[in-house]
Every structure is written in C-alpha cells, then in structure tokens.
Amino acid sequence: MNYPLELSFKLISVSPQLSVVDATGQTLFYVKQKAFKLKESVAVFADREQTRPVATISADRILDISATYRFTDPNGNGFGAVRRRGLRSLWKSHYDVLRSDTECMSIREENGWIKLMDGIFSQIPILGILSGYLFHPTYIVRRTDGTALLRVKKKPAFFEGRFGIEKVGEFDAEEEALAVLSILMMVLLERTRG
User: Fold this and answer.
1) What backbone phi and psi angles, to 5 degrees, belong to 169?
2) Which phi and psi angles does 63 have, rounded to 5°?
C-alpha cells in the first residue's frame, strides 16, 4: 500500500459508505454498510463497484460494547479479529487486534480529552455541527511490544468523516491487512463522533 492512506465516509447516510484510498488515488477498500442490522456484518471490497470481495467482518454478538469482530476471507477462512475494550473505551477508545485469538496489536486513542470535548460540544444546538471541524482524535496502532506501526488522524471536514493513515513503523503484509481492516471497523464503530 502506498502511504499515506485516506479513509472517508459520509456522516449523514442511511447506509454508510466508507472507502480507503492510497496516495495514488487507488481504492484499496470499499464498504457499503447495511442499515438496521442487529448483528453487525460488513462486506469489504477492493473496488467501488463491489465486484472484488476482500473480506467479511462479522460481530460475535448482538449490540455489545465489548463485541469481537471476526475477519474472514472470501473463502470463509478466518484470519483475525478486532475487539473493542468496553469500559476502557469510555474515556479513550481502545481496540485489540487479534491473530488466532491472541492479541498482536492494539489501537488506542492518544488523547481522551478530545473525545470528552467532542462529546460535549456536539450536544450544543447549532454549534454541534462544527465539532467535526474542531476536534480531531488521533489513534495509534502498536504491536504488543509497544512498537508503533500506524497513526490515524481525523481531518477537518463538514458532513463527512476523513481520516489520514500514516505509516510510522515497519510491518509485513499480514500485519498491514489486519491493522487496516481493524482501523476500518473502528472508524465504522466510532463514526458518530466528530
């Protein structure tokens, strides 16, 4: 993948559409999430036409803040998962990335104050629509040994979500796929913020 990557989606949409493009403008991942599903299941494609499936991300339970989202390839073979840390995510978002049910990476929000201020500001009538332009959470993807791999930063935007994904460390193709798909699912879960 050619970094930096840009992840974007529309905030006001019945069925959210999210795309990840690389520095050359090539679409790497595209998701059109189905609305009104009790148990989350997301199909990920390598093109906007949705002809080249890459993976499916499925929740292990219905509506739970500590759900695990399992990744399967187009043949149905599992290759990883991302799990939201329930209560720990109330202050600062925290996700564990799993390979064979063992934590191999984590995604953590760097500054909890931004999450708090965004939550408060977004509740103010009329001014709340500006929260997406004022507060920019940053997340860091690290291996369990503490090595930083990727940095995800919210970019200013009205009525859409835009995130930049920067490479800050070295990793193999399998780690890269797990990390980027985990970021994609995290953004889908956190999209209502700013």
Assistant:
1) -150, 175
2) 40, 75
